[in-house]
Design brief:
The structure holds 2 protein chains of 2 kinds. By secondary structure, chain A is mainly α. Chain A has 9 helices and no strands. Chain A is globular. The chains are: A mainly alpha, B mainly alpha. At the A-B interface, helix 2, helix 3, helix 8 and helix 9 of A face helix 2, helix 6 and helix 7 of B. Chain B: One of its GO terms (cellular component) is blood microparticle.
Chain lengths: 147, 141
Amino acid sequence: MVEWTDFERATIKDIFSKIEYDVVGPATLARCLVVYPWTQRYFGKFGNLYNAAGIAENAMVSKHGITILHGLDRAVKNMDDIKNTYAELSVLHSEKLHVDPDNFKLLADCLTIVVAARFGNGFTGEVQAAFQKFMAVVVSSLGKQYH
Amino acid sequence: MTTLTAKDKQTVKAFWAKVSGKSRTSAPLLMLVVYPQTKTYFSHWQDQSPNSPAARKHGKTVMMGVGDAVTKIDDLKEGLKELSELHAFTLRVDPANFKILSHNILVVMAVMFPTDFTPDVHVSLDKFLAAVSLALAEKYR
């Protein structure tokens, strides 16, 4: 079981209460598709992913980015049992979507970068550590049901 | 590992010139907080907190090294030969830590330059830092 300090709990709740989902979600997925282009393999039906501009303007990417970010809401609400909270999502990513679990870390890193940019100096080392710990637990839980 | 394209080199040089002069020491300092295992290399400092004079001075040294690598971007292996020997034989830093530092450099860039640190700049800088890490690890074995 993951132990969370009061600071870590407060930090995670604070971050997710402050970010604008319809900006951060699209920005995160778009950044992932540009910085790690092999992740585009999962979005063959999304149309124009030829360059950063195309990706940024792609409505399907934006919509999906928001969906993904909202997917984190349940983990934020259930920090004491993220593993079980995400059991079904893990099965979905493994058996239906066939996503290589290494990609979860790439997306998590992009989210860290985007959140850091939104928060500026408020994104201190301590905040970064808490956020990265949370994302590491999310990433691990999403990979748990892969066989 | 991929080679840096002409576009990557141009992007890195332009971005580094823009961020030059502003406080860029914080990435190594962040590392001490976010990845406490990195403090093991600094047990000789009395004060290992990120704001200590020793840490700040060293942060500057490291970031100037990265800036130097930008000037040697056309031949990192040759340009960073001596630094690689230093890290391999004297400092003996586990190369896994280069990845950690690279990540923190990217985070600091996002914090300090949110509009300039676009996805295109991000990918070129990420590639550059990976190439620097590789060049630094060259002499290890």
